[in-house]
Specification:
The chain has 247 residues and is of the alpha+beta class. It is built from four helices and 14 strands. The chain has two domains: 132 residues, Double Stranded RNA Binding Domain; 93 residues, no CATH class. Helix 2 packs parallel to helix 3. About 13% of the residues have low confidence.
Length: 247
């Protein structure tokens, strides 16, 4: 009897999760993961997007022009590929995060004993995606709840605060210097269209202010007068630079 109840509980949990992931409209793919030295090294970004499309997801590179139907970043998932340490074995797993950087789903670990890096990464990534394929993703059409009321009480205040980013300055998508915000574990990284990481942001208790690091200079990114400004001290003088950011 206990085994039956346990199986039912697991089934309900699995169904609840798949309904959750089906509520996201698309997935954003970065061009560089933490363990990579260059963009799309070993074609990992290309392989990630290809696997996502095969699994039924709409997928966009982080530097792509995204259609207006996908403008709300909190209706999207953000994929990350992680490398696990292993002796003579390449291990990769995939994480899906929401717009607050909270992990929504983690795949099983894919392993490869191939010595060639590109072959090893391809095999281990393909194996990691086997568990994702089993989700049978299909967009439900249901909007993901984004208000702070929908956030579980056990989520930290800092994460809840980032919910207000959606109501901060609206980016001018025609600006050639527009930077795109990509969620990280502790905040965001801002990339240009190259794409290249231009600035790293760390969350604070305020949704309109981040600790910011650019070219080795630490300052803050603040929302003022419906615009973002990177502010720092240089030769004891406060410098304020306007920055166009799309969150």
């Amino acid at each position: 009897m206990r085994i039956k109840l346990l199986l039912i509980a697991l089934l309900v949990s699995f169904v609840g999760f798949t309904q959750n992931i089906n509520d996201y409209k698309a997935v954003i793919v970065p061009l560089k993961y933490d363990f990579m030295k260059t963009d799309n090294q070993y074609r990992l970004a290309t392989m990630t997007k290809s696997n996502l499309i095969k699994a039924g997801f709409q997928a966009f590179y982080v530097n792509e022009e995204i259609p207006g139907d996908y403008a709300d970043r909190c209706q999207l998932l953000y994929v990350d590929v992680k490398r696990d340490n292993g002796f003579l074995v390449t291990k990769l797993f995939v994480e899906f995060k929401d717009c607050y950087g909270k992990v929504v789903y983690t795949s099983e670990v894919g392993k490869s004993k191939e010595k060639d890096y590109e072959l090893a990464y391809k095999e281990s990534l393909d194996l990691a995606f086997l568990s994702i394929n089993k989700l049978h993703y299909k967009y439900s059409g249901n909007a993901v709840a984004t208000s702070s009321k929908a956030v579980s009480s056990n989520v930290t205040t800092a994460v809840v605060a980032t919910n207000s980013v959606a109501s901060t300055p609206i980016a001018d998508v025609s600006d050639p210097n527009l930077l795109y915000a990509q969620p990280t574990e502790n905040g965001f990284q801002l990339i240009d269209k190259t794409p290249k990481v231009v600035m790293k942001l760390l969350k604070t208790s305020r949704p309109d202010s981040f600790i910011a690091i650019k070219d080795g200079i630490q300052g803050s990114l603040n929302a003022k007068d419906n615009q973002w400004f990177f502010e720092y001290y240089q030769n004891d003088k406060l410098v304020s630079e306007k920055v166009s950011v799309k969150f």
